[in-house]
């Protein structure tokens, strides 16, 4: 899902960077002291999961676990993903610094959106909770792929074909993301519900 440097046009890069900054600022303001460990651990999980990737044109197909970050962290998914992407750019040259903002936005924004859309299901028990978490994992990946494909398409017609390949390559990954998110979220809801973003919002009234 990382877009490489030297691919996107200036306006697309600037737009993505501005949106990423806004999301990160909101995310930092929403982080509670008790959430810091969860943010760090999920940032590490994102970092490791997205290291195993398959090149697809100018981008890569791989797990990102953004839906899981969304359902557990809410808005804090923005700074969590940003930190992981910075480390990947520094240590392994994945993505790059010029596309850092755009890559952060395309992965974090869908995670936060899905959290709020499926929050009623996440708050329930049993199959409804699993279905809501699965939907978050699946849809977050789908929306990220669509945003990435859209960024490529906006850059020029030459990238439209690559955008279509990117979407197709991520379809099986979306199902895997949904299953992982469903199982991990339902487990956390049973053993450590206070760590979840749904619980944090409830505490704030």
Automatic annotation (TrEMBL):
Pfam families: CbiM. GO terms for cellular component: plasma membrane. The keyword Transmembrane applies. InterPro entries: CbiM/NikMN. The chain crosses the membrane at residues 6-27, 39-57, 63-87, 94-118, 130-154, 166-188. One of its GO terms (biological process) is transition metal ion transport. The keyword Transit peptide does not apply. It is found in: Cell membrane. It is a multi-pass membrane protein. Keywords: Cell membrane, Membrane, Transmembrane, Transmembrane helix, Transport. NCBIfam families: PRK06265.1-5 (NF004905), PRK06265.2-5 (NF004909). This is Putative metal transport protein HI_1621. It comes from Pseudodesulfovibrio profundus.
